[in-house]
Design goal:
By secondary structure, this protein is of the alpha+beta class. The chain is built from four helices and five strands.
Length: 135
């Protein structure tokens, strides 16, 4: 496996988005999303993209872990854990400037326990309101 940081490959991103069932975006939307990404991790099996995750946010008050994706045939092989560890290393680096920075993520349904291994808790358990989304 090969790990690369800050790759902005539209085709690879959309391939993973489709593979995990989220549906790919238009290339122009994906390009803007990748251009506005603070940090990302791509994992390859030789030259084939198999996993990805990214950080977005203002780098001082909040960051958001987003788009943690692993090809279905590579899931349950610790690739998601590898991606999260790299993202969390970057989070810890950023938190040196503001230890109270909030780190958010939106877990896919049924994946909550995976993120709990990294210290994430549900908003209700933090005394916060329910997570909400505008569609």
């Amino acid at each position: 496996m090969l790990i690369k940081e800050n790759v902005k490959n539209i085709d690879e991103f959309n391939l993973l988005y489709d593979a995990v069932g989220w549906g790919a975006y238009d290339d122009s939307i994906t390009k803007k999303a990748l251009d506005n990404t603070y940090y990302s991790v791509s994992v390859y099996d030789e030259d084939k993209i198999i996993g990805y995750g990214r950080l977005i946010g203002d780098t001082i008050c909040f960051m958001y872990i987003h788009d943690v994706m692993v090809l279905p045939e590579y899931q349950n092989q610790k690739i998601g854990t590898l991606i999260m560890n790299k993202l969390m290393d970057k989070v810890q680096e950023l938190k040196k400037a503001n230890p109270d920075m909030r780190i958010y993520l939106g877990a896919s349904k049924g994946k909550e326990d995976f993120y709990k291994h990294f210290g994430f808790i549900e908003r209700k358990d933090a005394g916060l309101g329910a997570g909400m989304i505008l569609k």
